[in-house]
Amino acid sequence: MTNNKKAIVVGAGAGGLSAAVRLAHQGWDVTVLEKEAAPGGRLGAIEEAGYTFDIGPTIMMMDDVFRDFFAEVGRNIDDYLELVRLNPLYRLNYQDGTVMALPSDMKALLDEIRRINPDDVDGYLQFLSQIHSRYMAARKKFIEKPLNKLEEFLTLDTLTGMVQLKTLNNMYSDISRFIKDERLRIALTFQSIYLGISPFDAPSIYTIIAYVEHGVSGVWYPKGGMNAIGKALVRLLGEFGGKLRLNADVQSIVIEGGRARGVRLANGEELRADVVISNVDFPTSMETLIAPEHRGKYTPQKLESMTNSCGALMLYLGVNRRYENLDVHNIYFTRDYKETLDQIFEQDALPDDPAIYLYSPTRIDPSVAPQDKELIYVLVPVPNLSSGIDWETELPRFREKVIAKLERADLPDLRQHIEFEKIYTPHTFKQRFNLFQGAAFGLAPTLLQSGYFRPHISSDDVENLYFVGASVHPGGGVPVVMTCGKLAADLILKENGAPAVQWPKPAV
Ligand SMILES: Cc1cc2nc3c(=O)[nH]c(=O)nc-3n(C[C@H](O)[C@H](O)[C@H](O)COP(=O)(O)OP(=O)(O)OC[C@H]3O[C@@H](n4cnc5c(N)ncnc54)[C@H](O)[C@@H]3O)c2cc1C
Predict the structure, then answer these.
(1) What's domain 310-433's architecture?
(2) Fewer beta carbons under 10 A from the terminal one: N or C of the chain?
(3) Which of the listed residues 213, 279, 288, 435 should we mutate to test ligand 1's pocket, taking the one with most ligand atoms within 8 A of CB?
(4) pTM of whole model > 0.90?
């Protein structure tokens, strides 16, 4: 199927690629322009010295979103990705010595909760019994709807959906209604860090993440790492005739007569198209790609006033031995959960006691590291660049603190075994991917930056201009960003007079 409509997508992240694949599948002439030498953005990889590190995402959940995405463009996901369901989901390490390996089997999970605090089993089941309807309301009435226009937001369906979300309190206080034990409260709320927001600030609806991990979808691992998903999207794009240009740094979006007409590259080249989709982090798109008179309400003051997610300090380590006691996903909590989070989110300071997420896929996927060696990915939540932290001065001391904590925990003598190391600070995320304030997860999903109140997929001010990505509705995380790409493509098809597409029914 072909038509003569042209789309330019700026950025080959999860959002840009998914919109591009869907439009290319519908016969559009699609060109994706990526400033880096490799596609994927945060979903990309560092492939060096025999190691394949995921740059950002490592936890795959909502597998149905990925399966449906492939099925709807007539492909079987299993021909592109080898997906493994993880059991346990992750290993949680508390400072009091408690270790919990959360099983994917419900009975075993209840037994694990009983081992920690028998009184909380009933509370956990009550949490489950009320969360499903909230999860369904979130997905059907918010995540899977574009919510571009006030009239779409002010429908009875959406308004009743808001009531069903029951999200006026924060995650931690919501979970505390059901659960008494602090370790279990932590286990059910730390997931807000996936979105770069403190569980003491995150709307309580995000307790659905624990529900999704524990029950609805489980946690999955694509062989090769999450970056295999980015590679699969690039493959799909090619199969549908879409083009990907790397090292193509877009300098501005060309707007004439109130309509997006194309883009101008840093080398001066101008490309024209019927629609432009920016996958560049939304605040950066506004700040750098769009002339001030077309930014509408997104003035520099407005952008500065928005709440961004935290940053991430990343250590990508190649280690010349194996640490057999690790699981794929490991978390090392701190002496005082709230104090650590307040230091990062309230005081804009590096935490005294860093919380650490460690990912070690080597044990289930030897392909990501040289033989007998281990890939260790370390993520430490830190403030974003608005904190003014001087990373040049702070990095050596803070890195030392992180390594020392890991050595005390599961990785004795780690520093002696590091044969490869790469570090990303919030500056790296800003420089490589143009993330506003180096905020690793984009705009924070506060209540006032969610749904209709989050930046819209379709520009409010410029015709034929669209935005996709973590800082745009419906929000961050790979499956949600891919949903954004789908919503954008579907809007474009509709607004360009295409008859409603009968996407094939997903096979699974
Ligand atoms: C450390 C970390 C861990 C994470 N963990 C998880 C996880 O476990 N699970 C999960 O689901 N999600 C996770 N996420 C979130 C997830 O990575 C993001 O929500 C998602 O990948 C964002 O995709 P995107 O399309 O918004 O943009 P990006 O990945 O930011 O892609 C945007 C692309 O645009 C390009 N670009 C920017 N400016 C220009 C320009 N001027 N010209 C051309 N190209 C340009 C960039 O180089 C980039 O390739 C994590 C994120 C981070 C940083």
Answers:
(1) 2-Layer Sandwich (3.30)
(2) N
(3) 279
(4) yes
